[in-house]
Specification:
Layout: E1 5-14, E2 17-20, H1 21-28, H2 32-39, E3 43-46, H3 53-68, E4 73-79, H4 90-97, E5 105-109, H5 115-129, E6 134-143, E7 156-166, E8 171-181, E9 187-188, E10 197-198, H6 200-220, E11 231-234, H7 239-252, H8 259-266, H9 273-276, H10 283-294, E12 302-309, E13 313-321, H11 331-339, E14 342-343, H12 346-354, E15 363-365, E16 374-380, E17 383-388
Parallel strand pairs: 2-14, 4-5, 4-6, 11-12
Antiparallel strand pairs: 1-7, 1-8, 2-3, 6-7, 8-13, 9-10, 12-13, 15-16, 16-17
The chain binds acetoacetyl-coenzyme A.
Acetoacetyl-coenzyme A (CAA) binds near residues 33, 113, 187, 278 and 310.
């Protein structure tokens, strides 16, 4: 008998501040329709000076540990493309901040925005090997482009934590997966750079090519027909991309692609991303949170996941929503995570964007800005010092 393995709990956190796109448009003179309609973004989360992928990741995961305890968690996989260290996993800081047992394996994974899906699939494999164990997957990213670049309007920051185990309460991860890899330079961030480099149109084309590639492989592996899915969670660098990708997939499969069909398939996955912005590897699972928190009962229905990471790697798989899932959602906490953000004006955002951490190895406390449960208190001798409140 095949085991039922998947997402048992899901929780997200986002940053302290929020910049409305009207403020960005006010600065650069862009017609606001381009942001609100053209790319489908209303605001972006902006991290405080004392926030980073670790504090966001810990804030996302803490409610999961509080609800389920840590006795069964034997592995933590931290997925990110905005890593803070070339050697040490950001997951080790999270493990420490959450007080997880020392008998835990912790590792960081990277492949642009695809990393969390690799983490989820590896977690499913680990649980297959020993169904008594659970895996904590933490996807955390800060999306940062150059000021006054086209990518600037698609920034954001968030972390999603998922507890993976047998008999999941939310979503069962199904076989098969459709896979695709191509060596393209659509988006990348060399080690010496803080902000990503991107070829905007090339990145959209690369995403759509990958969508074709994963769907072709998924079909060849014997997956569900497109018409069977209740909804589709796409990677959302900006929410309009989910609409573009779904239209592309429908056309590729020879289906009609009317605006209503597309909106029905992806509309409810975009509510959080449209106000948070790109959260890179967390984004597809922020889409899942949005879908589960907003849709009518999806019990027993398959949802399609299309995860894309520039460079590029993509995967398509189905997740079946488990009966009774609504009793396990964190809808209220998710709404509060968004509503509690403090608006920042353009000048304040710009100052945060231009800020970089000192590299001289001295003692550098960070300004106390975040009101979240964890903060980056400062740097000392090249070490990041974190605090739990
Ligand atoms: N009212 C309504 N719509 C308007 C408008 C207005 N006043 N003005 C423009 N638009 C529309 C345009 O017609 C266009 O729509 P379509 O794409 O449907 O044609 C849309 O707004 C965007 O306009 P442009 O293409 O002119 O915008 P741009 O040149 O500023 O670039 C971008 C947009 C390429 C997404 C840019 O923001 C960017 O480079 N972003 C970062 C890269 C990215 O997100 N790539 C996505 C795929 S890669 C990926 O997914 C991985 C990842 O996370 C990075």
């Amino acid at each position: 008998m095949s085991l039922s393995i998947g997402i048992h709990d899901l929780s997200f956190a986002t940053a302290e501040f929020v910049l409305p796109h009207t403020a960005l448009a006010g600065h650069n003179g862009t017609e606001i329709g381009k942001y609100h309609v053209g790319i489908g973004q209303e605001s972006m989360s902006v991290p405080a000076a004392d926030e980073d992928i670790v504090t966001l990741g810990a804030a996302a995961a803490a409610p999961i540990v509080a609800r389920h305890g840590s006795d069964l968690i034997r592995t933590v996989v931290f997925a990110t493309e905005s890593s803070i260290d070339q050697a040490k996993s950001a997951g080790v800081y999270v493990h420490s901040l959450l007080g997880l047992p020392s008998a835990t394996r912790v590792v960081e994974l990277k492949q642009a925005c695809y990393g969390a899906t690799a983490a989820l699939q590896f977690a499913v494999g680990l649980v297959h090997r020993d169904p008594a164990q659970q895996v904590l997957v933490v996807a955390s990213d800060v999306s940062k482009y150059e000021l006054d670049s086209p990518g600037e309007a698609t920034q954001g920051a968030a972390a999603v934590a998922m507890l993976v185990g047998v008999d999941p309460a939310l979503v069962r991860v199904e076989d098969p997966s459709g896979l695709f890899t191509a060596d393209v330079m659509d988006f990348w961030r060399p080690n010496y750079r803080d902000a990503a480099l991107v070829d905007g149109q090339e990145s959209i084309n690369a995403y759509l090519q990958a969508a074709e590639g994963v769907w072709k492989d998924y079909t060849e592996q014997g997956g569900h027909p497109l018409s069977e899915f209740a909804a589709f969670c796409y990677h959302q660098p900006f929410t309009k991309m989910a609409y573009k990708a779904h239209r592309h997939l429908l056309n590729y499969c020879g289906h009609g692609a009317g605006p209503d069909d597309i909106a029905r398939a992806v509309g409810q996955t975009t509510a959080y991303n449209t106000v948070i912005g790109n959260s890179y590897t967390a984004s597809v699972y922020l889409g899942l949170a949005s879908l589960l928190d907003h849709a009518d009962d999806l019990s027993g229905r398959p949802v399609g996941f299309l995860s894309y990471g520039s460079g590029s790697v993509a995967e398509f798989f189905a997740g079946t929503v488990v009966a009774g899932y609504r009793g396990h959602l964190r809808t209220q906490a998710h709404r509060e995570a968004i509503a509690r953000r403090r608006p920042v004006d353009y000048a304040g955002y710009r100052a945060l964007h231009e800020r970089s951490l000192p590299t001289d190895g001295g003692e550098h406390p960070t300004p106390e800005q975040t009101t979240g449960p964890f903060r980056l208190a400062g740097l000392s001798g090249h070490k990041r010092i974190y605090q739990r409140r």
